[in-house]
Design the sequence.
């Protein structure tokens, strides 16, 4: 059998930049991806409107009962996985949307790309809870610089202590609703700033600037925001050093007589046959929960509880972001204005970065802090129709009058590490290919729930300060897992007895097994994870290259 230099499991953010970095260095790479390769001409929205579709974009109701609702629809069909099962422990609610297509969630992500700051790396030193990252911001900053130059991040220099500035393209312009909310936020002393978003406001890295069609979360057919199929994989394939195997569902990491990684066993989903592929090193970048599942299923006489698990911490320490509608309302200043395509980014243009507990880590009732993503304006479907009374032509006129005026605020709040939140292997349930599935135990902690209450109060007051009309908030946040920002299952630290990986994402127990996704982060912050996954994975990949050369 051929022995590759490196096998990379996963082609999303962490796997994609690892593949490109390794191939650029001349290493022979075999990449395994659990799903198919997407064709933007067929699989993305391509400016289709709801009325062009049989079910008006919502999808077949008979199929939606088994879907992830807003994600699995007529715009992007057959992309979000349901065949690969998972279970939850009694009392746990967990929503796990998984895109196993080549490029993973980078095909459809929200693109918010703020750096972790010193306040995040040293969170435990500041407030006394849990542990710090085993690396400093200064060590990672050069990798953030390089990644931002590679992918193109639009924003402004903002000079905030919790949010380090970076290398930016021009920001996306504020909309009318942003100017109004910005003024209201100023009255409350709350920041309201351009988001850091991996969306091209001018041509960059061979890709055209965004034309603001607003269809980002259903796939970009021009490659005008960062995704690995547009930015990294073509260069890796052009090098001649990459073999990409699709519909290859990793079952386990193979080990040699010394218990070190020698390859990967995977199931070919087309033939239903198990295949083994060998390499000098393995990079695991399947996403936090899936990487934990693969490692926990990699049992042998050397590793009876899962590969590289002498610490007993594999799958433990699961953290997530709480998402939820903290407030919604109307800006009467915009009633009756002409409709305008101000859903330009398919998600958000502005953000309200963490402003809590900056000078004093215990100023609020909770420790650490959260961010807010404001949105609104002329979106697609007017989801607020249930809030408006009336019928017939009068109802339609009122919808039209309010169409430019809705606003909403989505919280992004980190959970704290807890012994009660973790991933394990279900002892009874297997997926369609006979692989034991992940079972998840998780609940929101009291600190995060305090953030949720605080955000609802602040956002309600912001709407009123902006001259708006507050109409309510969600009764409860979205279920855990909804954000797709889970962290911690293979977290890094210097002590091999307490952590799965070291400060380079290299497994303490298995020197040629590296992890390049958010599972290595000791905890989450108020920022999204993708930019940091890219920065850490770049650093880990270059460390792997040095080790192989040595």
Sequence:
């Amino acid at each position: 059998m051929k022995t590759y230099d490196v096998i990379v499991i996963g082609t999303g953010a962490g796997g994609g930049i690892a593949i490109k970095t390794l191939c650029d260095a001349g290493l022979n790479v075999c990449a395994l991806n659990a799903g198919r390769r997407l064709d933007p001409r067929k699989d993305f929205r391509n400016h289709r409107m709801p009325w062009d579709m049989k079910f008006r974009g919502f999808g077949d109701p008979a199929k939606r009962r088994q879907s992830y609702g807003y994600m699995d629809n007529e715009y992007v069909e057959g992309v979000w996985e349901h065949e690969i099962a998972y279970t939850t422990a009694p009392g746990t609610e967990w929503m796990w949307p998984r895109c196993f297509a080549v490029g993973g969630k980078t095909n459809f992500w929200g693109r918010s790309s703020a750096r972790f700051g010193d306040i995040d790396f040293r969170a435990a030193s500041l407030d006394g809870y849990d542990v710090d990252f085993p690396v400093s911001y200064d060590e990672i900053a050069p990798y953030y610089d390089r990644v931002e130059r590679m992918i193109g991040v639009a924003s402004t220099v903002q000079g905030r202590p919790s949010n380090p500035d970076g290398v930016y393209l021009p920001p996306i312009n504020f909309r009318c609703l942003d100017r109004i909310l910005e003024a209201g936020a100023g009255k409350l002393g709350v920041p309201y700033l351009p988001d850091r978003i991996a969306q091209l406001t001018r041509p960059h890295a061979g890709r055209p600037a965004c034309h603001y069609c607003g269809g980002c979360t259903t796939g970009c057919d021009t490659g005008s925001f960062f995704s690995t199929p547009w930015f990294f994989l073509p260069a890796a394939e052009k090098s001649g050093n990459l073999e990409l195997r699709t519909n290859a569902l990793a079952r386990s990491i193979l080990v040699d007589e010394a218990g070190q990684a020698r390859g990967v066993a995977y199931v070919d989903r087309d033939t239903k046959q198990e295949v083994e592929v060998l390499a000098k090193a393995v990079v695991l970048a399947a996403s936090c929960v899936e990487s934990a599942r693969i490692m926990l299923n990699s049992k042998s006489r050397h590793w009876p509880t899962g590969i590289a698990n002498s610490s007993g911490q594999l799958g433990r320490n699961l953290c997530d972001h709480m998402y939820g509608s903290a407030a919604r309302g109307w800006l009467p200043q915009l009633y009756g204005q002409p409709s305008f395509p101000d859903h330009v980014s398919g998600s958000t243009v502005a953000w309200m970065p963490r402003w809590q507990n900056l000078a004093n880590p215990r100023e609020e009732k909770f420790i650490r802090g959260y961010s807010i993503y404001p949105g609104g304006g002329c979106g697609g479907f007017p989801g607020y129709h249930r809030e408006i009374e009336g019928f017939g032509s009068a109802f339609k006129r009122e919808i039209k009058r309010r169409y430019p005026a809705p606003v909403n605020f989505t919280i992004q709040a980190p959970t704290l590490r807890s012994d009660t939140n973790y991933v394990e292997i279900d002892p009874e349930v297997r997926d369609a290919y006979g692989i034991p599935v992940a079972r998840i135990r998780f609940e929101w902690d009291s600190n995060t729930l305090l953030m949720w209450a605080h955000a609802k109060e602040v956002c309600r007051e912001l709407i009123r300060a902006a001259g708006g009309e507050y109409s309510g908030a969600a009764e409860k946040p979205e279920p855990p897992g909804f954000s797709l920002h889970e962290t911690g299952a293979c977290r890094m630290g210097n002590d091999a007895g307490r952590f799965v990986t070291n400060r380079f994402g290299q497994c303490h127990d298995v020197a040629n097994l590296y992890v390049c996704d958010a599972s290595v982060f000791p905890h989450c912050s108020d920022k999204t994870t993708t930019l940091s996954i890219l920065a850490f994975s770049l650093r880990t990949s270059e460390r792997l290259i040095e080790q192989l050369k040595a």
Observations:
- Residues 446-465 form the longest helix (20 residues).
- Residues 3-38+79-549 form a domain with the FAD/NAD(P)-binding domain fold (CATH 3.50.50.60).
